């Protein structure tokens, strides 16, 4: 985001405001600040950190805590991060001259991509400040104004109430020579008293001392709650048997001890470092428990707390992402003057379960299974967790590592091809580690990591001699990671198969904690290819099997999604389940953007392309974006992933024209024929037929679908795929040739003033990162229309781009029983042979003699 406008408006030799060149602090979560600004017109400046700048709004009357009050917020220029610390006088005569004081500051978070929500016009977020807490909304209006206008309003939650920002100015520094009005101080006190009475009436405090005192081994204590050194688990290979043990999930996060003293919360790491400021949402949630004193033990996690979510947790705490964090609680050591560390484990957990019977948002109770440890481990692995923690049910809580808590991790065994080795280090002889690779479809092999443990000296010596023959410096597998160790590695043609124990895969897709199980002398690398379907095969519906959808729990099934037709979320879910076999080949393995409509198609919707917390069945694939940064993109592999996105209120599905494992190679071209508002439908049909004719003259077969809106898409599959630069250049040249052939009918520029009476040949969907709507996807428009693939001979019978809907599409596909495009994914055609033909086409393009009559 640019600070150019901020610089333009200020003279930094005359104003004490921070300049725009100060470096942003690293390793911090996104902040917010609200400043009271006594400029020519008194107002509040509301600022949210998005990326490396503060997105800013001027709110004349300040935030209201009443959800029914919507405050006007005028968007102003972005500010530098350092502006959050600014207080003082801006000299008169300078831009914004007047006194600036801090009203509140803290951290904020949102589920999903903040920039995407702002671009769509509706940001849902939570603030964790001293005054501003809970959920809030910013919604852009369509009122004509010099600056974009938004509405800022409070969500209905425990922090809402009949208060205004002006009621909370007691601690805000006033302009020189003034003091806060008494009525404001009185209003603040009255508001605080009213809020306290309302909170007490809504959730009366329950004293837990009497309940805790009944536990075996409990004792009264006068010691104030504070940090307790945590109990740790020993790593074991076998699950302990018998009902003397209870088994919990092993969460992959950061261990935190929570101290509550007189209702105030502090968080501590396992090494007694204070984390209170790093997780304000957890502090707020623990305060909402309404405990006077307590010491709690748990794990801070992101997402579902799985192995693959640990990277998301780290990125969020580092300020690189903005995910929802949760505190999974599994023990209680003290409450309201009673020390419970000597009480049995099962009794402590029973009390904790009572306290968390209706937990505030962000707090989770870690449930357990008594006995049946093998079953508990199996369930944990199925959920994508690393393993379980087995605890002796009758044991007290002891700091440090002991035998009462045992950690059992599941180790997967998987087979890989050996594609190289590293040199030995130190006293090791032979080789350092084996380089492993997994099949990568038609592309060969993909590097999966290296294994250096589990090999005897004799095996090391034998492998070193065997692999040295024919070793080379260039990789024999695709390497998508930057590992300095690999620069000195030696690579070989795959001839050996290694079976390896590991604990899943990390953020870069590499094996975690691998150990060699054995060399499979009975197998060849070719056997691994035959055991795994290639990426190309997944494009054909007949050979694809999908995970069952029964595991996806649908919430709010009766919510109306399409208000004009009364279609509910359950009907949308049922539709996507019915067409999954047709839709999935369009999505499978491709980076994906979705249009999410949490309040239905009639309310603000937003695009989302990045993976978010809570998505258990949708893959997160890291891809490089413009500027060299990497982000986790949505990728759907099966029906469960598709339906999980529907559960997340996704209505539209827009895949890339490339696969996630080859994002720089396009395997389809899409021409979107977008008619101006005064263009009749028959002309759109005629345009699609002309596009098909011209593509056929170039030796390219094409297919057609309705867009679900006003126009048609003409799709050209490419096999083998082609680089994006080549594809975009071709699409651009083709669109220009169409426009040149009949400039009164077609246009190849997106500028609206040139599109009156014409059809825009939109070639812009053919670039890396661009998307187009998938066949069989719904559109978030009246009537629940569908983007429907057609046979060319059907085109003349279609009445419009929105001819098929949620209700008519399943009937149509039930009659056809086959894809209208047939086996389109198997057709071999690329752009290598059409360049010369396209040049000839451009040279011979002259305006058509026939001109259409227009009303």
From TrEMBL:
GO terms for molecular function: ligase activity. Residues 318-438 form the ATP-dependent DNA ligase family profile domain. PROSITE patterns: DNA_LIGASE_A3. Residues 1-28, 163-205, 522-544 are annotated as: Disordered. Its EC number is 6.5.1.1. InterPro entries: DNA_ligase_ATP-dep_C (IPR012309), DNA_ligase_ATP-dep_cent (IPR012310), LigD_ligase_dom (IPR014146), LigD_PE_domain (IPR014144), LigD_pol_dom (IPR014145), NA-bd_OB-fold (IPR012340), NHEJ_ligase_prk (IPR014143), NHEJ_LigD (IPR052171). Residues 188-203 have a biased composition (Low complexity). It holds the Pfam family LigD_Prim-Pol. Keywords: ATP-binding, DNA damage, DNA recombination, DNA repair, DNA-binding, DNA-directed DNA polymerase, Exonuclease, Hydrolase, Ligase, Manganese, Metal-binding, Multifunctional enzyme, Nuclease, Nucleotide-binding, Nucleotidyltransferase, Transferase. It is an enzyme of class 6 (ligase). Its cofactor is Mn(2+). Residues 13-24 have a biased composition (Basic and acidic residues). It catalyses: ATP + (deoxyribonucleotide)n-3'-hydroxyl + 5'-phospho-(deoxyribonucleotide)m = (deoxyribonucleotide)n+m + AMP + diphosphate. PANTHER family: BIFUNCTIONAL NON-HOMOLOGOUS END JOINING PROTEIN LIGD (PTHR42705:SF2). This is DNA ligase (ATP). The gene is ligD.
């Amino acid at each position: 985001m640019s600070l150019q406008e901020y610089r333009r408006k200020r003279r930094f030799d005359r104003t004490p405001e921070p300049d725009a060149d100060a470096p942003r602090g690293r390793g911090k979560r996104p902040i917010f600040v609200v400043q009271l600004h006594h400029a020519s017109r008194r107002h509040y400046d509301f600022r949210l950190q998005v990326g490396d700048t503060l997105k800013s709004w001027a709110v004349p009357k300040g935030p209201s805590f009443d959800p029914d009050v919507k405050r006007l917020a005028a968007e102003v220029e972005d500010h530098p991060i350092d502006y959050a610390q600014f207080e003082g006088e801006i000299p008169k005569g300078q831009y914004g001259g007047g006194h600036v004081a801090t009203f509140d500051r803290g951290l904020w978070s949102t589920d999903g991509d903040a920039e995407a929500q702002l671009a769509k016009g509706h940001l849902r977020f939570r603030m964790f400040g001293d005054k501003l807490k809970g959920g809030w909304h910013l919604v852009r209006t369509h009122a004509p104004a010099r600056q974009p206008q938004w509405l800022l309003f409070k969500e209905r939650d425990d922090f809402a109430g009949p208060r205004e920002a002006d009621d909370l100015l007691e601690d805000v520094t006033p302009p020189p020579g003034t003091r806060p009005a008494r009525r404001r101080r009185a209003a603040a006190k009255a508001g605080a008293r009213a809020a306290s009475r309302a909170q007490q009436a809504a959730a009366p405090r329950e004293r837990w001392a009497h309940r805790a005192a009944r536990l075996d081994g409990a004792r009264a204590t006068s010691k104030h709650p504070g940090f307790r050194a945590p109990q740790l688990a020993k790593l074991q290979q076998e699950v302990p048997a018998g009902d003397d043990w209870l088994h919990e999930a092993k969460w992959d996060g950061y261990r935190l001890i929570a101290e509550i003293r007189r209702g105030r919360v502090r968080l501590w790491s396992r090494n007694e470092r204070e984390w209170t400021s790093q997780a304000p949402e957890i502090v707020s949630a623990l305060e909402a428990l309404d405990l006077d004193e307590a010491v709690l033990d748990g794990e801070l996690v992101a997402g579902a707390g799985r192995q693959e979510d640990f990277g998301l947790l780290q990125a969020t705490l580092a300020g690189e992402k903005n995910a929802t964090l949760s505190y999974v609680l599994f023990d209680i050591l003290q409450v309201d003057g009673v020390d419970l560390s000597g009480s049995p484990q099962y009794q402590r957990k029973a009390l904790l379960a009572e306290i968390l019977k209706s937990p505030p948002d962000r707090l989770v109770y870690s449930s357990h299974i008594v006995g049946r440890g093998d079953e508990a481990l199996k369930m944990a692995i199925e959920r994508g967790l690393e393993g379980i923690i087995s605890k002796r049910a009758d044991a007290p809580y002891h700091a440090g590592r002991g035998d009462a808590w045992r950690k059992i991790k599941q180790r997967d065994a998987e087979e890989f091809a050996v594609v190289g080795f590293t040199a030995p280090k130190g006293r090791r002889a032979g080789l350092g580690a084996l380089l492993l690779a997994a099949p990568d479809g038609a592309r060969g092999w993909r590097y999966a990591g290296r294994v250096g443990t589990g090999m005897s000296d004799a095996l090391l010596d034998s492998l070193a001699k065997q692999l040295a023959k024919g070793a080379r410096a260039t990789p024999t597998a695709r390497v998508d990671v930057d590992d300095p160790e690999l620069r000195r590695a030696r690579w070989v043609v795959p001839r050996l198969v290694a079976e390896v124990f590991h604990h899943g895969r990390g953020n870069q897709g590499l094996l975690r904690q691998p150990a060699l199980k054995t060399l499979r002398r009975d197998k060849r690398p070719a056997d691994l290819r035959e055991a795994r379907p290639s990426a190309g095969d997944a494009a054909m519906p007949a050979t694809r099997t999908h995970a069952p959808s029964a595991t996806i729990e649908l919430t709010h099934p009766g919510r109306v999604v399409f208000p004009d037709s009364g279609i509910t979320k359950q009907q949308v879910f049922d539709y996507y389940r019915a067409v999954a076999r047709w839709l999935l080949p369009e999505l499978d393995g491709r980076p994906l953007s979705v249009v999410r409509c949490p309040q239905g198609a009639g309310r603000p919707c937003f695009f989302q392309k990045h993976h978010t917390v809570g998505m258990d069945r949708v893959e997160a694939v890291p891809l490089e974006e413009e500027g060299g940064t990497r982000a986790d993109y949505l990728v759907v592999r099966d029906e469960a992933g598709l339906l999980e996105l529907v559960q997340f209120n996704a209505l539209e599905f827009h895949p890339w024209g490339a696969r996630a494992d080859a994002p720089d190679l396009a395997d389809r071209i899409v021409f979107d024929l977008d008619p101006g508002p005064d263009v009749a439908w028959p002309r759109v049909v005629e345009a699609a037929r002309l596009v098909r004719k011209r593509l056929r003259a170039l030796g390219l077969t094409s297919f057609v679908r309705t867009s679900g809106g006003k126009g048609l898409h003409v799709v050209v599959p490419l096999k083998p795929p082609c680089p994006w630069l080549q594809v975009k250049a071709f699409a651009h040249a083709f669109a220009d040739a169409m426009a040149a052939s009949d400039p009164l009918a077609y246009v190849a520029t997106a500028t609206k003033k040139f599109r009156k009476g014409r059809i825009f040949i939109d070639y812009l969907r053919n670039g890396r990162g661009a998307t187009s709507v998938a066949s069989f996807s719904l559109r978030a428009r009246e009537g629940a229309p569908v983007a429907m693939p057609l046979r060319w001979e059907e085109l003349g019978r279609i009445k419009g781009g929105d001819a098929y809907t949620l209700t008519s599409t399943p009937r149509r596909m039930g009659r056809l029983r086959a894809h209208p495009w047939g086996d389109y994914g198997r057709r071999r055609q690329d752009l290598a042979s059409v360049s010369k033909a396209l040049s000839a086409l451009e040279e011979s393009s002259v305006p058509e003699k026939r001109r259409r009559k227009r009303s």
